[in-house]
Amino acid sequence: MTAQPWPSGRMLALALVAVVFVPLLPGLVWALGPSLSAAVWQALLADPQWPQALRATLVSALLGTLLAGLIAAALATRLYPSPAWQRLQQRLPLLLAMPHAAFAVGLFFLMAPSGWLARVAAHGLSWPSPPDWVTVQDPYGLSLALALALKESWFLLWVLVAVLGEQAVTRQMAVARSLGYSAAQTWRLILWPQLLPRLGWPVAAAFAYGLSVVDMALVLGPGTPPTLAVLTWHWLSDPDARVQAQGGTAALVLLALFLSVTALAFGLWQAQRRWRAYPTGRRRTAAQPSRFWLVPLWGIGYAVLAVLGVWSVAESWFFPALWPDALTGDSWRAADWAPFWTTLWLALTVSLLCLPLALVWLEWGPAQFNTVLYLPLIIPTLPLVAAQYAALLRLGLDATPLALVWSHLLWVLPYMVLTLVGAYRAFDARLMSSARALGNTRLQACLRVKWPLLLRPILGAWAVGFAVSVAQYLPTLFAGGGRFATVTTEAVALSAGGSRQMLAVQALLQVALPLAAFALATALARARSHNRQGLR
User: Fold this and answer.
1) Which pLDDT value is given to residue 5?
2) What is the pLDDT of residue 471?
3) What is the mean pLDDT of residues 491-505?
4) What is the pLDDT averaged over residues 337-343?
5) Which of 206, 243, 175 is nearest to 67 (CA)?
6) Other residues' Cβ atoms within 10 Å of the Cβ of residue 506
7) Residue 131: what are its φ and ψ, rounded to 5°?
8) Cis peptide preceding 452, ω within 30 of 0
9) CA 27 to chain centre
């Protein structure tokens, strides 16, 4: 007799996810309820920092998201399916593993008036001192927009790699080219109309991150006034209840901006689909984007790592020297390693807790609720962080290790589910049917057949979750109550005026942890499958 399905599987999946999400509901009421007062809204609109902060936020978020989409689209159009596209896929894990704060610090070292790029120009133009240019922390948030565009373009490329890896896309391109359409026509008429709807949620996630980013804005964004997200963070951290309510109002403004812009973009897309003319059938040749300007886009990631590495061992390095006067390991010996160990145990705990939770959800959870699970990725962070903090205060758990772990789960779990869901959908269901027919329960079939065969994507999802936990800034500050310093919070704090050498050390430690996780995941997958080459 065939074993019956595990009856409590769905209830267990819902209960586990509820532990992560349900406390947010009263937290939103407690945190944002006082912000609905008309007096608080009047105080926000009368604040002298409000107009400039709103402008910098809109410029950086909109421009950064638009440029990120254009960069990813240009790279895919120009390189797919050439060998260069395969090489780009191999480089993406390194670029994706670089946390946002570390990337912002390295880009600051490159672009600042006394940075590496200015030093190169100074040697050619004989500049005795740094130029009086505002290349970072400009009042319009342009440098922040550039950083967001570069970092989020790698995320969108990662999504495109997964979508373009499907056989249907390859066959459609081959058929269109065999009918005489150029590569540019094939992309414009056939591929992009199918791919763009599938990029909607990732682009929305990139825009939501740009609206509420704080760590990158503290490094590269304007200072007085800062972006609206930084201003909201300052207000929510204020001990005055009235100022906190104003911060909650600003968080609602960020949420309203996100909903308005995404609704407008969706409406424009629907209108474009109705008005788009059918292809005329004419075959035309069209120039594709040049590779010359695309190559530096991933080279910047390596340049950021290089400048961080040099600054971490520099003894003294004065403008316009291209190289430090001497190299030393004193900065590494004098570095505070407590944030590193805090980040390590926190990321390990969170990712190891989320891995079985993601597997249980994908196996037994209702798939129609996946959109709810992805909400933390596609709405601004600050309202959710404020709700988390309000819930922890009411429960008396703020500034505890448990609060810190729970605060990270809200973002790590959706990323892990998103990473694994493609492999889960592609799994051959006949294997599970065969295992069940041999008398295994559903759980036994997963433990003996499904999950071992999905070991590579499962380990990849764990590495992604580890990296996401390392990069968390606002949840660590709010839930930790300032008592837990991680490499991310330490790097951002040092960027406000600390030693550049120490800043580079903490930024490199922030990069090293995700890279180690990805390397470990790759090594374990290879060790597990080295004698099963024919089963790949």
Assistant:
1) 46
2) 92
3) 87
4) 94
5) 206
6) 30
7) -70, 155
8) no
9) 24
* Nearest alpha carbon to residue 351 among 98, 522, 208, 521: 521
Tokens of 428: 């051959």
Angstrom distance (rounded) from CA 262 to CA 56: 19
Bin 324: left if φ > 0, else alpha if -120 < ψ < 50, else beta. Answer: beta
Q: Is 70 exceeded by the pLDDT of residue 220? A: yes
End-to-end CA separation in angstroms for the chain: 32
CA distances from 26 to 15, 378, 507, 534 (A): 17, 20, 36, 52
Reported as half-sphere exposure (CB side, CA atoms, 13 A), residue 389 has a value of 22
User: Tokens 């909607």 map to which residue?
Assistant: 200
Quick check: 63 and 142 in contact, CB under 8 A? yes
Count CB-CB contacts under 10 A for residue 192: 14
Write the CA distances from 245 to 103, 256, 481, integer angstroms.
Answer: 32, 16, 19
Dump strand ranges (E) for 253-372: none
SS (H, E, C) 148-175: HHHHHHHHHHHHHHHHHCCHHHHHHHHH
State how far the Cα of 32 lies from the Cα of 410, in Å rounded to an integer: 19
Name the 3-class secondary structure at 48: coil
CB-CB contact of 222 with 56 (8 Å): yes
Q: Tell me, what amino acid is at 203?
A: V
Q: How far apart are CA 175 and CA 188, in angstroms?
A: 15
pLDDT tens across 152-188, in order? 998 898 888 877 876 677 787 778 777 777 777 788 7
Write down the number of H helices and E strands in the chain: 29, 0
Q: Which residues contact 491 (CB under 8 A, 6 or more apart)?
A: 101, 102, 105, 503, 506, 507, 510
Whose tokens are 């959109």? That residue is 371
Report the pLDDT value the prediction gives residue 410, as an integer from 0 to 100: 92
Which DSSP symbol is given to 327?
A: B
Residue-wise DSSP of 266-326:
HHHHHHHHHHPPPP-------PPPPSTTTHHHHHHHHHHHHHHHHHHTBS---TT-SS-S-
- Contact indicator for 521, 460 with CB cutoff of 8 Å: yes
Classify burial at 38, counting beta carbons within 10 Å of its beta carbon; exposed 0-12, middle 13-18, buried 19 or more.
exposed
